[in-house]
Structures are given as structure tokens and as C-alpha cells.
Amino acid sequence: MSLKFNETDFEVQKITEEGRTVVCRTFEHIPYCESPKVPDLERLSIYVPEIFYQGGSINGYDLHSAPIFMPNTIGGYMPGPEEAPGKNFMGKTNASFYALLNGYVVVSAGARGRGNRNAEGENVGVAPAGIVDLKAAVRFLRHNKELIPGNTDRIITNGTSAGGAMSSLLGTTGNHPDYEPYLKEIGAADERDDVFASSCYCPITNLDHADVAYEWEFCGLNDYHRAIIAEPLEGEPSDHPVLGKRPGVDGNGGMMKPPKFIPVDGEMTRKQQALSVELCNRFPGYLNMLNLSDEKGQSMTLDDDGTGSFLNHVIENVLKSAQKELDAGHDIMSDSKVADWLRVENGRAVSVDWKEYVRFRTRMKEAPAFDNVSMGTAENELFGTTDVKQRHFTAFSKEHDTVGGAIAEKDQVRLMNPMYYIDDPIAVKATHFRIRHGAVDRDTSLAISEILALKLEDAGIDTDIAHPWGIPHAGDYDLPELFDWIDSICK
Ligand code: DHB
Fold first, then answer.
1. Contact present, 225 and 265 (Cβ < 8 Å)
2. Are 316 and 450 in contact (CB under 8 A)?
3. Which residue from 204, 228, 246 has its CB within 8 A of the most atoms of ligand 1, so it is best to mutate?
4. Strand 292-293 and strand 299-300: pairing?
């Protein structure tokens, strides 16, 4: 199979959403590696404003200078198929559509995830499959850089949650030899795979420390509240050839009804409560070992009781989020539940009662949140093997295991964690990072994004982090600001 891009194989499409229309040239479903494990997934599509081909420009960008916006659709560490500009699987107009309007070239690459099986029934989507695929897609673009529309030195990755984690990995592990055997295995082009910038919404990352971070934040709150996605309802097409039973996607890769959610509420068992305390007590040791400092050079530490300069730093960023609302004239204090934890004086957000703030957000996951002692999480499955469905990935949960589960190799866990690569000089890092983690998101601790941002900043990487007000676990909700950021780093 050739990895040469055929620039003559395209269609011109008119896409209309929300009363706005883009005419774009589409190059769809191009295999980006020679030996894909899941051929329907390991391919990419390129969308280009058609006006670029008539010598026109949008927002100062033309066919050669346009940034390449590269979103992924990975969620829950499941497979992420390509997605055309238009609606996403939740029925909302996607970022790719707006990216075209803003003069970017869009490259949507599919990538494997947990649940993918080959004809022999082997799990071919376990770690590090997703990040390997996305790197192979970047390599395909570089391999064809003379033919690819847009500027391959201005690739900006974007993703949400597990997809945000993937975006953070793309931005921290460029060209690292650790991934080479996996890239060779799928027949990726022998090219660079570093990217220019990474946009990460609520990255579910640093998985091997996510349990301790979660309990640092939520320990003491024993009731949990979450929602699970219902299985496809009767009558709805399911069993997508690539995605399996992924609600919202029909058998032709098309759109269906948005998934339905069923609330699950409960109280942690005594045993889970005891695990929570143990995990919580371990977080300061981890945080202090990282030797992080803020932009003023103040070292970020925690005392044994979980308080200290790092907590104050997180609170400062929550205060900034509140201040942005106040400055925009929003009366956030009219919500008595907010007034329980936030103090505002003369229009300034001055203090947060951390415990009350956490109570306001509520706990979503039982302890341990990611590496469950009885397994069953998305992450346990991520760290499976070709023939073992799920495994532990922390020594703690392996020690407290209740189901006789094995533990993943250190190397597999490492390949999924950007933290290990940021100060590895062999890894080429993105020049710019943008991290957004909503102020009421509870899928992972705010500390996870904060630690990532501090580590990037300490390594001299331009990093923009914020906890947008009132935003739960979500992404792509502030596209005008995202695109302003992209323009500010590209122009
Ligand atoms: C996602 C959410 C989670 O809570 C998690 O543990 C892993 C992934 C997601 O939305 O991608």
C-alpha cells in the first residue's frame, strides 16, 4: 500500500450548519499506515476551504499557510472514528465545521481504542494503540508535506477527555523512540511526529497518579453521583463494525439519536472509604516529588494534611475563573450554592472554601477512581493485552485487588502518560499548550490538569490553563477563544 497522498482524489462539498455554509474540498478515508490493525478506523480525512484552491484566503490564511487543525474523537478510551465537519455524535455542530470557517485545514484521523478486536478476537485497541495511530496520521501528513494542503509545521491537535489525553501525548512525546516499534508494526511512515501545539480539554491523563489526585480532592465525600450511557435502545441500530455498541453512531458511521444517560447514585462502602483515605494520604508525597514551581518561581508543595502552596495555586485558578465571570457582569453570587464556597468583595473574587467547593461539585467516582480494585473501568481495559481484557496499572490497586487481576507492564503505563516525557530531552514537545478543565468537572481531579500545566511551564513551554466557570466534563465549548489562541500562536 502506498502512503502517497493523491491530491486528485477529492470531492467538493457544501456543508451548512446553524445557517452558515462552507464549501470545502474533501479527501476522505485515506489509510495513513501500511499495515493497519483496524483498516476502517486507521485512516484520515482532509477538509480544505475550497476558496483556497481559487487563490483565495480566509482570516489571512491560504492553501499553504493555513494551520492544520487536527481533532480526535476518542472518548472513554474507546475507538475514535474520523468525523466530517458537521454534527458530532451528540448532535452538536463540531469544531471542525467552525475551524473551516476560520480558515484552517481540518485533518480528522481515526484511531483505535479499547474494545477493538481483530478477526482472531485479539484486543488490538489496548494502550498504546490510540496514540500510535494518531502519531502515524501525523507522520502521513509529514510524508506528504509538499502535497498536503496547509502548513504541516503548524499542526494543532485537539481532543476532549481521553481525547484530550491523546492530544497531550501528541504534544509531549514527539519522535520519541519508545513508540517506534508500535509505529513500525502498523507500517507508519518513517517521519517526524511532533506537533506545533496541543489543545486539551479535561485530559483524563497521568492515569497512574489519577487515583491519589482524585482522593486528595474528594476524600471525605462518600456519596457519589454519575450517569452511565444506556445501551442502544430497542430499534436503534447498534453493532457498528468498528465501534461496536456505541450509542449515537449507526452502522454506516452516520448519526443517530444522542445517547441516553441513566443516573447512578450511591454511597462508598466502608472499604472504599478506607481506600480513599489511604490514597489521599499518598498524594502529597507524589506532588512534592515532582518539584514543581509556579510562574513566579514559588515551589509547589503540599503538607501531609493536603494543604500548601499547590492547593493555593489551584484555588487561585478557580478564583480567576470566577473573576472572569464577574468582569463579564455575570451575577454568579445570586446562586446561593455558589455563595456557600466563594467570597466576593467589591467585585473581586477573594477566597474559596475548598471543602465546600468540592462538596458543591460532588464526587463522581468511587475509590479508587481509575484503577478499580475489582477492575471494570475504562482505564483497566485500556491497559489490557491482546488476550487479557483488563489489568491494573497501579501497585496500590494491585495490592488491594479483589479479583485476581494482573498488573500492566510499567512501559505500557508510561507510554500513556505525558508527565514522563516532558523533561525527556529526546521527546520533541509542542511549543504551545492550551488546557481547559471545567470548574465543575469531576471526571478527574483538577490537580491532574494543574500538574500537567506546571510541568510544561517549568520545561519552558508556553501553557495556557483555565477552569472555565460552570463547565462540567466537556470540550469545544469556547471555540472563538480556542481559535483566537490558535491565531495568536500561528500569526
Ligand atoms: C473519559 C471519561 C472518564 O471519566 C474516564 O475515566 C475516561 C475517559 C472520557 O470522557 O473520555
1. yes
2. no
3. 204
4. antiparallel
Total domains, the chain: 1
How far is ligand 1, taken at its centre, from the CA of residue 379, in Å?
8
259 lines ligand 1 (CB under 6 A): no
Task: State in Å: Cα 103 to ligand 1 middle.
Answer: 31
CATH number at residue 137: 3.40.50.1820
Q: Give a yes or no: residue 64 inside a domain.
A: yes
Ranges of beta strands (E only) in 271-341 are 292-293, 299-300
Q: Is residue 196 part of a domain?
A: yes
Whether 311 lines ligand 1, by a CB cut-off of 6 Å, is: no
Give the burial string for 367-380 (b: 16+ CB within 10 Å, else e).
bbbbbbbebebbbb
- Any residues with CB less than 8 A from the CB of 2 and at least 6 apart, and which? none
Q: Is the CB of 79 under 6 A from ligand 1?
A: no
Q: Is the CB of 103 under 6 A from ligand 1?
A: no
* Alpha carbon separation from 181 to 187, 190, 194, 349 (Å, rounded): 10, 12, 17, 51
Which is nearest to 367 in space by CA: 264, 218, 229, 209? 218
Q: Does any domain span residue 61?
A: yes
Alpha helices (runs of H) in 389-433, residue ranges in sequence order: 395-399, 410-415
Task: Give the β-pairing of 197-201 and 432-436.
Answer: parallel
pLDDT tens track for 196-229: 999 999 999 999 999 999 999 999 999 999 988 7
Q: Which of 86, 179, 164 is nearest to 424 (CA)?
A: 179
Task: Count CA atoms closer than 13 A to 478's CA, side-chain side.
Answer: 22
Q: What is the pLDDT confidence band of residue 254, given thresholds at 50, 70 and 90?
A: very low
Cα–Cα dist 451/294, whole Å: 10
Domain hosting 157: range is 11-204+413-490
Q: Is 77 in the pocket of ligand 1 (CB under 6 A)?
A: yes
Candidate of 73, 78, 161 to mutate for ligand 1, largest count of ligand atoms within 8 Å of Cβ = 161
Q: How far apart, in whole angstroms, are the C-alpha atoms of residue 102 and residue 85? A: 13
Does the pTM of the predicted model rise above 0.90? yes
pLDDT digit string, tens, across residues 354-365: 999 999 999 999
Q: Where are the beta strands (DSSP E) in 18-171?
A: 20-31, 43-49, 67-71, 105-109, 151-160
Q: Which three cell numbers stand for residue 93?
A: 455542530
The phi and psi torsions of 135 (rounded to 5 degrees) equal -65, -40
- Cα distance between residue 306 and residue 290, in whole Å: 15
191 within a domain of the structure (yes/no) = yes
Whole-number Å distance, alpha carbon 146 to ligand 1 midpoint, is 37
Average pLDDT, integer, range 348-357: 98
